């Protein structure tokens, strides 16, 4: 064999790992001879994993990273693009007077017919426009109506955790009251299922664990269903939207200084604090308490969503707020190590951004999980400084006269409690779906400008859902397994490894000795076995390529053929060992199997393009179960990479899937247009679709706007070079 032939697909052939086998032994020997080390074979990550954050090396690197992670958060929360803001129809009624402040009852519609409820604390004795503080409350029993009880607070007073009985028993009220006395307008609003916000029940919002078949139908689905997950609809996302609308409400008041906006909450309220700050630029100061940590990320269904923490964690999510002022409060819980794990990195990030003094951490690890008197005092002083409250130091929280539940509840005879239950849940998701579908449909490209917007919005979402673009693939190492001369062509088997990520893929190359500089990448549902019969003979569709001088690459995507390990399923996604059957506990931390297989295809494309014997033209062919992965890989390639793509869709749509563990399940994709959106994002010069009755309208529109050749439906898999 000539040196030139060897060089095309055999880089750095190592004597210690290279060997030659007859092709009839290839299938049997590949598996034995392929020591595949792939980090994806390891147990799945879950909410109790370790989530460190590495400080970027320069500002530009961080800005690029932060832009992507903010988009990731927004996609996971169902707010990418930002939904249309319908009228709040806010009702503020029945004030209760207290010394230094007034408490109003508030409710408004975050989605038509779905209500956010809360208490509005307004200061007395201040003039001019006032700063505001938004207070998501967290998982305290009865929340806005919370009463810790005399016995518990008596014990806390002895340890110094609390100072006064009433302020300790009703600490959520005490926090709002003290902020109001400092001159802030404060809104504490109910999480779903708490206090007055019971249109969705507490058990549904925070205790969901078993499937509800009646709420998983194709037309009438509820939260946690595969249909909801495919549309990025989650309880967490709804609460994030409620927070955005709560900010809309409070910033719409006449006496508000919208340049001074604080947000603070503890536990689940801490999660809501930094999530809101990640998707909304209006907050200027935040204090997330007992939730920013490299350890447990939030155990409730309302603190998790598919896609949210894939490749990231709460330290980085909080760090998205940099360089604006942020203080993190820790306790003797999962946040107890923040001073050595998390805070130094946040400090480094803020230093990089030029505002090191703007980040603080208060480790009150002598106390259990809390938002007690000591923690609240630290928060008051941080807000005093950064909201410019100009209060005299030290700020000492006084006792309160608590409001009773009848004084707090927003519902009465004049304002009756709205209906909830399954019917409301279905109706709510129908409204969200209809609004989202209309918004995405309006992005259908008509010209270059609208195409750019489509690629930014829908393409950005797909970047998050797939988790990688071709341009993200770094250096790839190759280990050869087999080399066989078939007369007219050379067959190579090898393992490609992305060392930086610890991921590998098993690839076969077929290189004609009279190569025409074309490369066809063939993707099959059965993996590389789809290219040949049991005797290693190329099937006709592939043999014709070789006859025309076109080289072929094919692969075993993860879980298929030789690219597997004991216990790793090929036909289903794995699930984290959480007894609660919520997709977000798995896909909130791990890429789905579909996305991982797309990553493998992108690695093969990157490897071929980077080789010094570069092909002049690459075409992509996804057939016999491989078309969906090929379509997604095509969407993640830049223009000019793939000259032609042949995609056998088999009439598939992600919306048809009824099980979130299905091997092809892809969270969020239906929201953005399903399989046609992936095809519309493809930039190949030519596109042939197989098993599609007609070219989807959005595909035709996108290709026309891009000036690309019109897509065709085809009855043939063959793509041949010109004679």
Task: Give an account of the 3D structure.
There is one protein chain. By secondary structure, this protein is of the alpha/beta class. It has 22 helices and 18 strands. Helix 12 (343-352) links the parallel strand 8 (326-330) and strand 9. Helix 3 crosses helix 16 (448-466) and helix 20 packs across helix 21 (674-681). 51% of the residues are buried. The model is unreliable at 1-34 (pLDDT under 50).
Taking all Cα atoms into account, the compactness measure Rg is: 29 Å
How many DSSP E strands?
18
Q: Write down the oligomeric state.
A: single chain
Q: Enumerate the spans where pLDDT stays under 50 for 5 or more consecutive residues.
A: 1-34
Largest sheet: 9 strands, mixed
Q: Mean pLDDT, nearest integer?
A: 93
Biggest sheet, spatial arrangement of strands: 1-2-3-5-4-6-7-8-9
- Describe the global form: elongated
C-alpha end-to-end distance: 27 Å
Structural class, by secondary structure, is alpha/beta
Distinct helical segment count = 22
Range of strand content? 15-25%
Helix and strand topology:
Elements lengths: L2 H7 L16 H8 L25 H18 L14 E8 L2 E11 L2 E10 L6 E7 L13 H10 L5 H5 L1 H11 L3 E5 L12 H6 L18 H4 L5 H17 L4 E11 L1 H12 L5 E5 L24 H6 L6 E5 L12 H10 L6 E5 L9 H14 L18 H4 L12 H21 L6 H19 L9 E10 L3 E10 L4 E10 L5 E7 L15 H8 L3 E6 L26 H5 L5 H18 L6 E7 L3 H9 L8 E5 L25 H8 L4 E5 L6 H10 L5 E2 L10
Parallel strand pairs: 4-5, 4-6, 6-7, 7-8, 8-9, 13-14, 13-15, 15-16, 16-17, 17-18
Antiparallel strand pairs: 1-2, 2-3, 3-5, 10-11, 11-12, 12-14
Helix pairs in contact: 3-16, 19-20, 20-21, 21-22
């Amino acid at each position: 064999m000539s040196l030139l032939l060897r060089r095309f697909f055999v880089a750095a052939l190592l004597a210690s790992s290279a060997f030659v086998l007859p092709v009839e032994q290839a299938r049997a020997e590949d598996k034995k001879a392929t020591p595949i080390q792939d980090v994806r074979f390891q147990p799945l990550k879950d909410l109790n994993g370790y989530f460190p954050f590495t400080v970027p090396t320069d500002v530009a690197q961080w800005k690029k990273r932060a832009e992507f992670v903010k988009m990731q958060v927004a996609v996971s929360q169902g707010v990418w693009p930002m939904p249309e803001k319908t009228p709040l129809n806010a009702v503020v009624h029945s004030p209760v007077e207290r010394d230094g402040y007034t408490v109003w009852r508030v409710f408004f519609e975050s989605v038509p017919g779905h209500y956010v409820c809360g208490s509005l604390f307004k200061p007395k004795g201040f003039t001019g426009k006032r700063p505001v503080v938004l207070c998501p409350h967290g998982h305290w029993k009865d929340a806005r109506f919370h009463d810790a009880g005399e016995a518990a607070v008596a014990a806390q007073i002895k340890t110094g955790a609390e100072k006064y009985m009433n302020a300790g028993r009703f600490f959520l009220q005490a926090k709002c009251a003290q902020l109001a006395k400092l001159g802030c307008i404060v809104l504490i609003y109910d999480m779903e299922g708490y206090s007055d916000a019971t249109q969705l029940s507490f058990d549904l919002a925070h205790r969901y664990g078993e499937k509800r078949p009646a709420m998983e139908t194709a037309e009438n689905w509820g939260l946690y269903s595969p249909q909801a997950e495919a549309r990025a609809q989650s309880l967490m996302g709804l609460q994030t939207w409620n927070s955005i609308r709560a900010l809309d409400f409070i910033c719409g008041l006449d006496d508000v200084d919208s340049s001074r906006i604080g947000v603070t909450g503890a536990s689940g309220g801490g999660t809501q604090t930094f999530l809101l700050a990640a998707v909304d630029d209006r907050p200027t100061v935040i204090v997330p308490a007992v939730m920013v940590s490299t350890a447990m990320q939030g155990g409730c269904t309302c603190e998790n969503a598919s896609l949210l923490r894939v490749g990231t964690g709460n330290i980085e999510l909080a760090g998205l707020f940099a360089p604006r002022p942020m203080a993190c409060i820790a306790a003797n819980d999962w946040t107890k190590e923040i001073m050595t794990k998390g805070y130094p990195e946040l400090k480094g990030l803020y230093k990089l951004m030029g505002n090191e003094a703007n980040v603080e951490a208060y480790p009150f690890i002598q106390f259990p999980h809390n938002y007690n008197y000591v923690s609240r005092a630290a928060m008051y002083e941080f807000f005093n400084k950064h909201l410019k409250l100009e209060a005299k130091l030290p700020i000492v929280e006084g006792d309160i006269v608590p409001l009773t539940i009848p004084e707090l509840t927003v519902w009465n005879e004049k304002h009756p409690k709205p209906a909830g239950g399954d019917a409301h849940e279905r109706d709510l998701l129908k409204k969200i779906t209809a609004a989202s579908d209309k918004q995405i449909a309006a992005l259908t490209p008509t010209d270059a400008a609208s195409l750019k917007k489509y690629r930014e919005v829908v393409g950005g979402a797909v970047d998050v859902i797939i988790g990688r673009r071709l341009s993200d693939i770094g250096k790839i190492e190759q280990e050869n397994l087999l080399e066989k001369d078939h007369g007219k062509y050379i067959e190579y088997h090898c393992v490609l490894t992305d060392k930086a990520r610890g991921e590998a893929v098993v690839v076969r190359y077929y290189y004609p000795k009279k190569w025409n500089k074309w490369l066809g990448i063939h993707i099959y549902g059965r993996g590389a076995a789809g290219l040949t019969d049991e005797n290693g003979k190329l099937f006709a569709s592939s043999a014709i390529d070789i006859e025309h001088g076109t080289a072929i690459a094919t692969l075993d995507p993860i879980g298929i053929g030789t690219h597997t390990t004991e216990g790793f399923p090929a036909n289903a996604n794995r699930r984290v060992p959480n007894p609660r059957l919520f997709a977000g506990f798995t896909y909130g931390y791990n890429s789905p199997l579909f996305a991982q297989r797309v990553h493998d295809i992108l690695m093969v494309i990157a490897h071929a393009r980077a080789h010094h014997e570069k092909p002049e033209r690459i075409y992509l062919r996804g057939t016999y179960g491989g078309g969906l992965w090929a379509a997604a890989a095509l969407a993640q390639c830049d223009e000019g990479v793939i000259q032609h793509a042949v995609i056998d869709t088999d009439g598939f749509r992600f919306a048809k899937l009824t099980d979130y563990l299905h091997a092809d399940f892809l969270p969020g994709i239906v929201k953005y247009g399903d399989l046609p959106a992936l095809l519309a994002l493809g930039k190949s010069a030519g596109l042939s679709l197989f098993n599609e009755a007609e070219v989807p309208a959005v595909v035709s529109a996108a290709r026309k706007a891009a000036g690309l050749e019109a897509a065709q439906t085809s009855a043939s898999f063959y793509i041949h070079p010109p004679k």
